[in-house]
Amino acid sequence: MSDMHLGQHISRRFNEELEDVRSKVLHMGGIVEVQLANALRVMVHDEIELAREVVNADAIVNSLEVEIDEECTRIVALRQPAATDLRLVMTVTKTITDLERMGDEAKRVARMSRKEMDGALDDDVRADMELMGEMVRNMLRQVLDAFARTDVDTAILVVKADKKVDKKYKKLLKQLLKQMSQDPTVIPAVMNIIWAIRSLERLADRCQNIAEHIIYMVIGMDVRHIKLDDVLAEIEAQLEEQD
Predict the structure, then answer these.
(1) pLDDT tens digits for 158-216?
(2) Domain that holds residue 139
(3) 77-110 per-residue burial string, b: 16 or more CB within 10 A, e: under 16
(4) What's the CA gap between 72 and 93, in Å, rounded?
(5) How crowded is residue 124: how many other Cβ atoms within 10 Å of its Cβ?
(6) pTM of the full structure
(7) CATH number for the domain that contains residue 47
(8) Is 226 exposed, middle or buried (0-12, 13-18, 19+ CB in 10 A)?
(9) What's the structural domain count of the chain?
(10) Contact 218, 146 (CB under 8 A)
């Protein structure tokens, strides 16, 4: 095989390896998405039979994290990727960590059946929890879509959505704290609700993390710990430079 053909073969193989890693990340994300959907049905609608499915899926998610991480390590060691390819590999390693943690949080949510919340889960609280859960599910769908299409605009939407989830969480928390102060007998049940919505808030944070990884992957800018308005201004400036 000539040097040119060898180079083309190596390049093609490398691209296939990167695509394989990307596909596995999306597969892993899809499993976490189902975990979250089932966990919400357990928590809000008391479909407790789904709790076992959430727990069982966690082992698959954990296994995928290890498998993908090992593949990324091998790619870095053998291919020594540069620039955009290296950012992709780094984004993958960070994203799978966030997805694995999301699986853990979904498992915690699934443990919070209506029985644990008995006497405290009134219709208003349940409606707010259901809305908060749907907001987080939308964030996860969007961020996986952004990863699949390397779409900065969608990633930014996810970062913005996290602020809305935080607002909903704080509103619910205030309401639940008031409920406990008015009726101490419901404190154990309300604390379980608080742990559940805290997990939802953390799930949203993980989606935001992945969105920030995607922004870094596409334009090479680390937007962690930067105010959202500053992030948007900086991204617009960079995109204009690329044009």
Answers:
(1) 999 999 999 999 999 999 999 999 999 889 888 988 999 999 999 999 999 999 999 98
(2) 3-242
(3) eebebeeebebbbbbbbbbbbbbbbbbbbbbbbb
(4) 7
(5) 10
(6) 0.87
(7) 1.20.58.220
(8) middle
(9) 1
(10) no
